[in-house]
Amino acid sequence: MSEEIEGTRPAIGEASHEEQQEMGDTVLSPEKAEEVKLKARFPHLGAKPGGSDLLRKRLQKGQKFFDSGDYNMAKAKVKNKQQLPAVTPAEKAEITGDHIPTPQDIPQRKPSIVASKLAG
Amino acid sequence: MAGAGGGGNDVQWCFSQVKGAIDDDVAEADIISTVEFNHSGELLATGDKGGRVVIFQQELESKNQPQCRGEYNVYSTFQSHEPEFDYLKSLEIEEKINKIRWLPQKNAAQFLLSTNDKTIKLWKISERDKRPEGYNLKEEDGRYRDPTTVTTLRVPVFHPMDLMVEASPRRVFANAHTYHINSISVNSDCETYLSADDLRINLWNLEITDRSFNIVDIKPANMEELTEVITAAEFHPNQCNTFVYSSSKGTIRLCDMRASALCDQHSKLFEEPEDPSNRSFFSEIISSISDVKFSHSGRYMMTRDYLTVKIWDLNMESRPVETYQVHEYLRSKLCSLYENDCIFDKFECCWNGNDSVVMTGSYNNFFRMFDRGYRQDVTLEASRESSKPRSVLKPRKVCTGGKRKKDEISVDSLDFNKKILHTAWHPQDNIIAVATTNNLYIFQDRLTSIQ
Fold first, then answer.
1. ipTM reported for the complex surpasses 0.90
2. Exposed end of chain A (fewer CB within 10 Å): N or C?
């Protein structure tokens, strides 16, 4: 049984592991087909996928700010428009704020605590 | 077999309750980040991205409906963690609660550990249902009386009052983790617990906050040589010297604290051999273990990677004894799942009370149960549509190609923003808590009526 595997169509149904391995011998496994697609979209992707780059990004998780004033301003902005953020891009650039904060910009008050909606 | 699955042939899961807001506009703070039953199952705790903890308590069975197990209602809620700013690194420390773990109950109060990326806190939750009244030294409003007007001796008496549940932080365990805490686990000795971040695992005494012992350190001397990180860790349920930790490369290491102070050398290494010809760019990413859980018996452990759930026998390191496909149809979608970051989603998994069934979440608000004994699996959905009280959940099916049957949903129609990452199973009964993005669903099995 030969099956044409294209990148745009879901290729394998609920094939078991063994079936997939057999298919891998004659045609591209779904995983390898997806890899080909990815390399086509991101030609600069390194050869070491799980390695240092990805891991180091994971270790550095957390938004970096220029300083504490910048941080407080960003917090004040989030409180105004509380919404689900857009899906973060895979390559996250370091964010250092829109502009240099001045004393007038930084909010004085600590924002009040809102109760969880699960307890409502 | 329609309608059944999980916990034997005759278990039918019914909707019981749903907590949280109905509207689709989800505030980031309301995203549920952890769900955990306590050891008796009477209490159910949730943590969210806003650093808040909500604890639900199961009501005692009502006389009117003896076959309906009690409902869970709000017992206590408090702000566990606040956002912090690391001035040295100019980094924000999220207040998101990564994990909650209950301590076994020793007295009238309940204790739990909650952690964000950097700080673990021990919370005491206690009840107050009596208040002393009848002071003769004070007025009703608390002002002290003129002592010369006091002529008789009167001892205050405790009177019942409306139940008040108080949560107070008893210990704060801070400044011990350079990297982000992903796990905490209470030891069976009830005196110590471990906390694990990406590269290190620390051992704490619950009483001591200014000191912790490092028991695992996988940080390489040269960070360029970093190849794997710690993804989860847990103590053995009854061997106080044993713990396991999983890695981003799909391995699990079992360590014995009696062997040495620093457990960098594992006692056992669990790893499934991989066929190198099958290796792709995605292989390592999807093999990263997002959760590891010992069975209640302590004989087995379960791991969750992106596409599967694996059961390991602690006596056999060479390969898992059981492998269950959670959503194999995603294997041909890995490219888009990498682009939208979903491939990095960290799903958790859990055992039922007698270790016969395991459960884990998926996308489109689906969750999966695998019955180990009967070799059956079922896909169920947590949605508002199937939320009529005591309505039986209908099994769902994902169509992977070819003709789509009625009631099936095609892979391309799955909503990848609706992910169930956190689920919990009552320690004894067939009651499960399933967290969607911002709602908590509670399902129970429909007790078959005794004729």
1. no
2. N
